[in-house]
Amino acid sequence: MKLSLGSYFYTAGRVLVAATILFGLLLAVPATQTRADNAGYALAFDGINDLVRLTYTASIMATSTWTTTKSVELWVKPEGPAVFCANNVVAACDYIFGDRPEWWGITRGIINGLDRIWIFNFDGRMKQIGVTYTTGEWVHIALVHNNGMLRAYVNGVETGAVASGATRQPGNGALPMLYIGGSIFNTSRNYTLQGQIDEVRIWNIARSTAEIVSNKDLILTGSEAGLAAYYQMSDGAGTILTDDSVNNWNGTLLDGELSVPPNGSYPQWVTSNAFGDPTPTPTFTPVTPTASPGPPTATPTETFTPTWTPVVPTATPTDTPEPSPTPTLTWTPTDTFTPTNTPEPSLTPEPSTPTNMPDPTLTPEPSTPTTTWTPVPSATPAGSSNFALSFDGANDLVQLPATSQIIGASWTSTKSVELWVKPEGASIACANNAIAACDIIIGDRPQLWGLTRGVINGQDRIWAFNYDGSMDIISMTYTPNEWMHVALVHSDGMLRLFRNGVEVASRASGNTAFPQGSNPVLSLGGIIFSSTSNYTLQGQIDEVRLWNVARSAQEIQNDMLRMLTGDEAWLAAYYLMSDGAGSTLTDDSIYNWNGTLLDGGWGVAPNGTLPLWVIPGAF
Q1: What is the CATH number of domain 390-614?
Q2: Taking the domain 36-271, which CATH number applies?
Q3: 413, 511 in Cβ contact below 8 A?
């Protein structure tokens, strides 16, 4: 059919109008945002030594309010069997996401028989929420911390909440580091996930339920308000995890870290099917925490009951002790974090004693029978490492770093030491009845504070001492060749001494005084100044713990019979005696303040034997 010119222009005009209308309709329809799994990749972690190290929490968050306001969203597919979290501690589960030294984050593991994904935050007490999951299936998890509340979301549904204040931060200016897929401290504390992770989003704002639900299946632009870092897993190859936000906080894939060696396989780039199956709706009902008197405690989705109770000594102490509370199982993560590459100090011998130290005026402890103590191991007894260090009383000692480095700037006023000791052989008579001329169990050089063993004014005792301008000492009885737990606590102008968890003596004692410009160094098992000033212990020592806080009687009782995780709040150094061989004493805390075993020195010749690794230890 032929068209006239007029008909042609009429028909063409109708087509143009129709096309214009259609184009307008297309413009009016909102574009569909790309689904998250269209990026194609996830990271698979082997549960052996795989992890991704990001950078400092404070750097990524880029705001000082992150301790009170933050959100994390991610997809995770847990694989393989869940681990039993040591001592039922949330930070000893396998890490999905969180900081090192484990103050907040998301983990997976079994606590008191409950296999869960755990959302947690430490505000001075550990607050945690457990949510159910299915092994081998993808699940979307969100952590939201804001306005004094910690909330957990599963597939966009809020499943639990608990009161939780600002995340604790280090008192020494150090900066915690964020990780994905694992956290490694050493071979025995290797918390790496078996499973896959995709679409990790870190926010310095509190995300709402609506925001979580509407965006969990979609790729972000990377420039959203409040988005601190965005790991879309878009790389697909290599050892860099690109931050797909505008902030460029790239991560590094690691095959092992610290003392955990590589196995030749980094986290693997795999095809993501995070959205391949319908998103299940949680079938459980959130549990609202019930308020209780006293300090707030963590109220997870399920209620936990400790499965062990340490035995508290029943013998009457020499002095009036604090009431023996009923111990409860609690845990706190590390409150300080010091980078491991901090150099150890140069060790320079100090004079044997401060020249203005008077001999003590001794108020001997009344003669009473020694406390009878039968340790009852907890689920993880302290002696699980099996080793102790045996000192020969001739020239053995362990040299540690400086007191101020290990304990921190406040060490002169606030500190605690706990250890197990088994004094052996005959006790020495301390020259001139001076506390600093007794055999050192632990203390600093030049003997300003610590624990010693010896005979003063005819009294064979273990002595706790502190020099605040005059020498303050307290003492307790002991039985040679028997293990006992000893704790020294110095705080608030008081020096306190504990035997097997019971306070036996105390006295006023101010800040530890030390020579201007000096940097006293700590020693374990002895101090040597010369052949005539050789104060080395004959006996065994196990489970040495140094704290930059005043430990309470209850805390001492709760923990004395079990191994620590090494990242407890205020723990400055932890010598579990886990090595079993060699001339290095490993610090089993996160700080790596390792000691060196010595055979003589300072004018005392070696006798060919370092302090000996012996078994069994205190238990």
Answers
A1: 2.60.120.200
A2: 2.60.120.200
A3: yes
